[in-house]
Design goal:
heterodimer; A: alpha/beta; 5-stranded parallel β-sheet; two-stranded antiparallel sheet; 9 helices; 32% helix; B: mainly beta; 3-stranded antiparallel β-sheet; 0% helix
């Protein structure tokens, strides 16, 4: 599959809206206001903190604030010399600082940053652990959420990709960003990765055609889980095969094992 | 919302590297614009950080509310339009209004034969040929 056609390409991932569960956007903004617009979005890696912060930005602008979005990450752990001086020099109470990746900052640098940001009308941060500012929202993920996002990107029903979503969610320990990147890789392979154990061989006929007519003892336990292989949907199970280590190996869900004959 | 269109001579969408590209930009503006620009640029799609670069720009100053103007670019000799598993490099034209920044985009292919270069054409594992030679150690 060409990178430009991959449903999990960066361009499309960046268009996914954060899905708030258990609270409305109005309630979240109201809570933010009660905290004086100084609060933290907390969550593990790949839990949607940055996405949530990005979606908060226009809502804060609608409330009359001018937002300044700044970011640190593992590749950029410090701000450039002079950047913070310029940033703080022009702050007014109309400004809200949106700081993504505060955990990259050591406690002393954070203390200085927080003190200097008092001139701003607000400071909303993302961080992995609570404690740096009052928690506005704890971002959490689930396999169901991953399935919902993937289903939206693929244009299929959640049910069709539930098993694969569960597997990737477990493998990446709840990190949706990594799970979606893995999903990109799986689709990029553009071929069915199949179990070669117990007489199950790679299915050469599974070319997404209307009548694949597989040879016996062949089961397509394809990565796409019918997402890009509607032609042989009936043989697709939603199970996944993953590339583990340097060898292409497989991990077949129990539902698939039951249909693979032993030799 | 203004109406913006980019039309290329003979409705072509694929070009040889280094070829001249002729076209026309048409607009019907909802609000007055200071200028419009047509840009030839490339961008990357796929996994990881997206990137882009503008190669040529033609500026149309003092545009009428409804007007069409022609443009011409000499296309670069490299890089070709290509797609692999990880990234695609895509060439495009973009018509942009200033200052409203309304945009119309038209993707084109720049490659020998007018065909996007596909990088993922290596044989599958099972079909991979044995090497015709081997290094011998000692």
């Amino acid at each position: 599959m060409r990178a430009r056609d991959n449903p999990f390409r960066t361009e499309r991932l960046s268009q996914i809206r954060h899905r708030l569960e258990g609270i409305t956007w109005a309630e979240l903004l109201s809570r933010c206001e009660r905290l004086g617009y100084r609060a933290a979005l907390v969550g593990a890696q790949g839990s949607g903190k940055t996405t949530l912060l990005e979606h908060l930005e226009p809502m804060l602008m609608d409330r009359g604030f001018r937002t300044r979005f700044i970011r640190l990450d593992e590749e950029h752990r410090k701000f450039d010399n002079g950047f913070l001086n310029d940033l703080f020099a022009g702050l007014t109470t109309r400004d809200i600082l949106l700081f993504d990746g505060v955990e990259q900052m050591d406690p002393f640098a954070w203390h200085r940053f927080r003190r200097r940001s008092r001139a701003a009308g607000g400071l909303i941060i993302t961080t992995h652990q609570p404690g740096r500012l009052p928690t506005l929202w704890q971002c959490r993920t689930s396999a169901a959420l991953l399935a919902a996002i993937a289903a939206e990107l693929l244009g299929v029903e959640n049910e069709m990709i539930r098993d694969l979503a569960e597997t990737l969610f477990q493998k990446h320990r709840g990190n949706l960003r990594d799970a979606l990147r893995k999903w990109y890789d799986l689709l990029a392979e553009k071929r069915e990765i199949v179990a070669k154990r117990n007489g199950v061989v790679e299915d050469p006929s599974c070319s997404h055609g209307p009548d694949p007519a597989p040879p016996s003892k062949t089961r397509c336990v394809g990565l796409s889980a019918a997402a890009d292989c509607f032609g042989c949907e009936s043989r697709h199970t939603g199970a996944t095969s993953l590339r583990l280590g340097k060898y292409v190996r497989y991990r077949v869900a129990s539902r698939v094992r039951s249909v693979i004959p032993s030799v | 919302m203004s109406e913006l269109r980019i039309a290329l001579k003979q409705d072509r969408a694929a070009f040889q590297p280094g070829e001249d590209l002729f076209g026309a930009a048409y607009w019907k503006l909802d609000s007055p614009a200071q200028a419009l620009e047509i840009r030839l640029f490339w961008f990357r799609r796929g996994k990881g950080t997206e990137d882009a670069g503008v190669v040529h720009t033609v500026r149309f100053d003092e545009p009428m509310p409804e007007e069409a103007r022609s443009f011409r670019f000499t296309l670069p000799t490299a890089t070709y339009s290509f797609s692999g598993k990880l990234i695609s490099l895509i060439w495009a034209l973009e018509l942009v209004t200033e200052p409203a920044r309304e945009v119309q985009r038209l993707e084109i292919t720049i490659a020998p034969g007018g065909q996007e270069v596909l990088l993922d054409t290596a044989p599958e594992d099972g079909a991979r040929k044995k090497p015709s030679f081997a290094w011998r150690v000692g």
